[in-house]
Specification:
Helix content: 25-40%
Strand order of the largest sheet: 4-1-5
Radius of gyration: 25 Å
CATH architecture of one domain: 3-Layer(aba) Sandwich
Number of strands: 5
Shape: elongated
Number of helices: 4
Order of helices and strands: HHEEEHEHE
Structural class: alpha/beta
Strand content: 15-25%
């Protein structure tokens, strides 16, 4: 009897256990990609920027930074060349640098303007634009 009991215990120990979270499973559906026509129809260009004081920020309610200036110029270019007369408003969405590409893939923004080089993950469905400059000198200024 003891052998049968030990054999049953050993058989039960070799079985794998599976745990399940209570409640319904959450499946996140990726949002549909927006092209320029759908962005124009919504009237809003959502730009994900690096949440860094070096590239963008706000001072006294005023947006500042290199990426903000670049995106403002891009917004003006798109509005100037709009065939249908619809204007776009820029919506700046700050995220940590390591979260920018994931936020883009989740559909939180239409464009990423990191202000610095981002490593594209292998096998990613994202595509980077060509660099407009290379071998740019870096100057660091610090207060003493």
């Amino acid at each position: 009897m003891l052998r049968v009991l030990l054999t049953c215990c050993l058989l039960l120990l070799s079985c794998t256990a599976a745990a399940r979270v209570a409640g319904p499973l959450e499946v996140e559906q990726p949002k549909a990609a927006r092209d320029l026509a759908s962005i124009r129809s919504s009237g809003e260009l959502r730009v994900l920027v690096n949440q860094s004081r070096n590239s963008s920020g706000e001072v006294k309610g005023q947006s500042i930074g290199v990426e903000y200036q670049r995106m403002r110029a891009f917004e003006q270019y798109l509005n100037r060349n709009a065939r249908d007369g619809r204007t776009l408003k820029l919506k700046i969405i700050p995220r940590a640098k390591d979260q920018l590409l994931a936020a883009l893939q989740r559909g939180e923004g239409d464009l990423v303007a990191p202000g610095e080089l981002l490593n594209m993950p292998r096998g990613s469905k994202l595509s980077a634009s060509a660099a407009i400059r290379s071998n740019v000198p870096l100057i660091i200024v610090a207060k003493q």
